[in-house]
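Sample pair:
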Amino acid sequence: MSTHRAEPAPSSRQNIILISIIIFLAILLRLLYLGRWSLWIDEYHTLRMAREARLLVEGIPGDQHPPLYYLFMTLWIRFGVSEFWLRLPSAVSSIVAVVMMWRIGAALNRPRLGLLAALLLATIPLHIWYSREARMYGLISGFWVSSLYFYIQTIRRDSWLDTLGLALANTIALGLAYPTLALLVLELSFFLLGWSLAGKRPLRVMRFILAQLPPIAGAIFWWPYFQIQLGRGGVFNWALPGLDFQPTLGQTVAGAGLIGLGLLAVVVLASWLLARQPRLLGWIATRANWWAVAILLGFLPLLLIGVIPRGLSVRRQLLVFLPILILLAGWALDQLRRRWLTGIYLGLATLLGLSMLWLPPYENWGGAVDFIEAHETAGDAIFLLRPWYEPYAMDYYYEGVIPFEDRHTIAGELETVLAEYPAGSTVWVMANATPAEEALMTNLWQPFAAVGDQVAEAEFPTYLIVRGYRLR
């Protein structure tokens, strides 16, 4: 039996007041200054994919993501392409995720748990970061949390609306991002355990099975296109320091499948142990406070990781598990005997969330372009070192005096290209590189230093450098 002291749950009026404050905080942290910073390369990728004619003709994106986000953005950009407008769908959906997290607490008859989990989700920097980005990761969070809500309700009560909600949430989420597969595996893994604890109603099993049919049908329809993506041989840029970790899409999906099977085996084993040894559940319950402390200590790195400016590709893979981890952390906060510890933890989360409003942009291409426009003259040239989506950044922001045809992307012999410009003209060089690439960047600057004198330099967050060289 748990030693956690019972406390009265918040009244309905208190609940409404508290969740209103939490929702206001979520709106503030996601919409305030939403268009303040310039787009970064991944967001230019979104814009490019949404404008790509092949997406509408062939129905398949030119990268390794499902098509639904880009199809939606194709319609969305018809009404505008400002930074605020491009990011707005992610921000709105992430606010919905906060509301649905609160509803999960109500579904579990744990209103305080719902409030704590909603506050954590509203303030955790990892979620805020992606809710302020024009990519699918913030948009999908609303569907992931909704899926979890309808999943719990499908287990706990008899309603066809829950079945429909679960089917729609999972089908849309699967069309937005492949990591949804991990959520589907988790829901399947825990269903029998949750169903048995909720009374073993046979009709609920049927409803759950029916809810799986739409995402399965969608996956079958998409399978031929998925095979095309597998055949491209591209990689996800998930490089970790010192580790070769760039799997293809096929390797990623296969790895996710193995992880899912492993989780399923763990859940089945745990269910079997609890069935054979019911006293284990009581033993676990008597140590709820210790479990809570352990969970919160484990959750702390996830709370802090969102303020780290690099490693985005690694962090985004955590998002599919975030709703469940948030619920665990909310439960842990509710179990703590010392309420002042709960207050400190939530205060830290709130301060970290507020700090996201003042973090520098990931790549301030707008600032870099403004710097060039303020110093350039007719006859200058702009060079982009190691270009990927840098040309799209220039197309989006640049309104200077240098004609489009005089802006160059480095290709082939740089010396030959530089020889085309007369002495006295200035070449503006833009590069985006981390400190780990400092030696490489030194080599890339050398051809310009060999034929010109450096007359200007400016750095913009993060690792974006602009240099001006006047040719001799």
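The chain has two domains: 12-355, 365-471.
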